[in-house]
Design a protein that fits this description.
Blueprint (H helix, E strand, L loop, with lengths): L1 H47 L8 H15 L7 H11 L8 H14 L7 H18 L4 H20 L2 H10 L2 E2 L7 H17 L17 H34 L4 H19 L8 H8 L8 H14 L7 H19 L3 H17 L2 H12 L4 H14 L10 E2 L29 H15 L1
Parallel strand pairs: 1-2
Helix pairs in contact: 1-4, 1-5, 1-6, 1-8, 2-4, 2-10, 3-5, 4-5, 5-6, 6-7, 6-8, 7-8, 7-15, 9-12, 9-13, 9-14, 9-16, 11-13, 12-13, 13-14, 14-15, 14-16, 15-16
Length: 447
């Protein structure tokens, strides 16, 4: 009895401790997210009165590239991926200077027209401030790591406007196929508090309940499955576009400033050909797709290209909003082929691309409920899981650690960062593909 009382006392103290610490981190991140997003909104309003503001893109990308390349190289990398890497390799240690640098470079990139997102920088700023908090109060080891994860969850929750999905995203995005349950409580607390603080400070969020969901039928369910496969392919294209952009950038033997200016000029040329819809966050296009309005069928391909060029050649920012853009427009594109309501498939695509490109099917499924309503959730969950599997062992966040393989017919090294994973096709005889190969061998022997 005495031993049990000691155990419960320790657990109670631990719970109280992390509720207090996570609340503090949530408040800090809520304020920082509000300041960051408000500055982006102010910048967008400032340039919106100038129809050719995107002509400043080469200068914006140049300034961002110079700051990162020559002044603060430790800030290299886009948003959340760098924080994920710090959690896995440095126990959450993030240099304080990264917070203002990420703030500034993302502002320069987005306000001049670069295609990027605000979620990653918010998570990076949140994680960075949590690391500073840990430094001030001498938290190390597991406690520091937990605090930084709380900062990530708080950043996602307050910028997404989805406190539960954002909090889960912060812990699900660290690994592919695993969640850190020991950080679940503080992540929830930090996410909810951060969201409430940002809301109290006046930050507004996007909610778009789906007004029309067809009655369940076998035919409709099959269409959702087909859409999930398509979203997985679109996610594959998006991730590979990011990877290709970095590969091309690394192969071009020119000074970073020259590449930044050249990429800005390329983006200007593409904008003059295709319109400004693919610049910046692209929230207007996302809104149009979710309202069931017509958007070009190739919009998700162009946004992938614009984002890859921006982030591979000097620009700074996250990839969350581009993922939503690609998902919503991909849903709009396939809705006509499947004969399904355009707005509903755009909503499902919105979350399914997040599930596939970020390997976060649970957070994406919950996000569907928080943003689009409970009626669409079962179909969104199916599409999210399919997209997650179809995308394969790759991610828009290459520093994620692989904790589970997505097919028993593939041999992969678990515990590796995704950027180092090279699947081997070692088929087992009990798998469908293995059986098929056995049948082929049998026919050859008979022949």
């Amino acid at each position: 009895m005495k031993r049990r009382l000691k155990e419960e006392t320790v657990i109670f103290i631990s719970v109280f401790k992390w509720i207090v610490l996570a609340t503090i981190i949530g408040i800090i991140v809520g304020f920082s997210t509000t300041a960051f997003v408000s500055s982006l909104n102010w910048g967008s309003r400032l340039v919106s009165g100038y129809p050719y503001y995107f002509l400043l893109m080469p200068m914006g990308l140049l300034a961002s590239a110079l700051i990162v390349e020559y002044l603060f190289p430790e800030a290299r990398g886009h948003g959340a991926d760098m924080v994920i890497k710090s959690v896995h390799k440095h126990a959450g240690k993030i240099k304080a200077i990264i917070v203002p640098v990420e703030f500034l470079t993302t502002f320069l990139t987005l306000t001049t027209g670069g295609s990027a997102g605000k979620e990653g920088p918010s998570a990076q700023i949140g994680g960075g401030l949590a690391s500073v908090f840990a430094d001030i109060f001498s938290f190390e080891g597991i406690d520091r790591r937990k605090l930084v994860i709380c900062g990530i969850s708080g950043g996602f929750a307050s910028v997404f406007g989805t406190p539960i999905a954002g909090a889960i995203f912060g812990i699900e995005v660290l690994f592919v196929g695993s969640i850190l349950y020991d950080v679940l409580l503080p992540s929830f607390v930090a996410g909810i508090v951060s969201y409430q603080v940002s809301s109290w400070l006046g930050l507004t969020y996007f909610y778009h309940p789906v007004s029309f969901v067809p009655v369940f039928s076998e035919a409709f369910f099959i269409k959702v499955i087909i859409a999930g496969v398509f979203f997985g392919v679109a996610s594959f294209i998006f991730v590979e576009a990011l990877r290709l952009g970095k590969k091309i950038s690394g192969a071009i033997r020119l000074p970073v400033p020259v590449k930044a200016v050249a990429s800005g000029l390329v983006l200007i040329a593409l904008t003059l050909v295709f319109s400004t819809n693919y610049l910046g966050l692209g929230l207007d296009v996302i809104q149009s797709a979710l309202e069931g309005k017509d958007v070009p069928w190739y919009a998700f391909l162009l946004k992938s290209a614009f984002t890859s060029i921006t982030l591979s050649f000097g620009g700074s920012g996250g990839i969350g909003t581009p993922i939503f853009f690609v998902g919503a427009t991909a849903g709009s594109a396939i809705s006509g082929i499947l004969g399904v309501d355009r707005a509903m498939l755009s909503a499902i695509g919105f979350v399914s691309l997040l599930a596939g490109a970020a390997n976060t099917p649970i957070a994406a499924s919950i996000m569907a409920v928080e943003l689009f309503g409970a009626e669409v959730a079962p179909y969104a969950a199916i599409a999210c899981v399919i997209s997650f599997v179809i995308t394969g062992h790759r991610s828009a966040y290459p520093s994620q650690v692989l904790a589970v393989k997505k097919s028993s017919s593939l041999e992969v090294e678990l515990g590796e960062e995704l950027k180092n994973v090279r699947p081997q096709y070692g088929f087992r005889e009990k798998s469908v593909i293995g059986i098929f190969r056995g049948v082929i061998r049998g026919f050859r022997k008979k022949g």
